[in-house]
Automatic annotation (TrEMBL):
Residues 8-62 form the Glyoxalase-related protein domain. This is Glyoxalase superfamily protein. It holds the Pfam family Glyoxalase_8. InterPro entries: Glyoxalase_8. It comes from the Bacteria. It comes from Bdellovibrio svalbardensis.
Length: 152
């Protein structure tokens, strides 16, 4: 089955909202009415979060860093931060968090996000974006990525 190239990829947040609506509908069919907010919180709980707001915030933050045009084949993915740290230590690059995983991105990856490898905020943030050295610089970096995406 092929997908049209013009079709926008559904975000993880949208996928989880659909799951919450299906859960709500399923329970309703069994005479167990719940509000959508309760269904969203249940989905958040199943994903290890206290509530939907916390899950949504984390997903929005990490979705920002995934450049779907780069594709997973050009990034090095890791299930633990330690594995990503080892790769970055030995090969260079940046540790980027994505949901519960991490990947290593290089200067080309940064360019695909609109970030120059000599950016002053990048130097303040450091190589580990899952634990930035400077929180304010990290926020500015995120805003630069958003602005770059909005230009496209």
């Amino acid at each position: 089955m092929s997908t049209s190239p013009s079709r926008k990829t559904m975000s993880r947040i949208d996928e989880l909202k659909i799951r919450a609506k299906k859960l709500q509908k399923s329970l309703s069919a069994n005479n167990k009415e719940i509000k959508l907010k309760e269904a969203l919180n249940k989905i958040a709980s199943l994903n290890g979060f206290t509530n939907w707001r916390d899950l949504k915030h984390k997903l929005e933050e990490t979705e920002l860093f995934l450049n779907r045009a780069t594709g997973p084949s050009t990034l090095h993915w890791y299930s633990t931060q330690e594995e990503a740290r080892y790769f970055v230590k030995t090969h260079g690059g940046y540790i980027i968090p994505y949901q519960t995983d991490f990947f290593a991105g290089d200067d080309d990856y940064l360019a695909s996000l609109g970030i120059d490898k000599n950016d002053a905020d990048l130097k303040l943030v450091g190589q580990d974006w899952s634990e930035p050295n400077d929180a304010e610089a990290f926020k500015r970096l995120q805003n630069k990525i958003r602005a770059f995406r909005d230009q496209k």
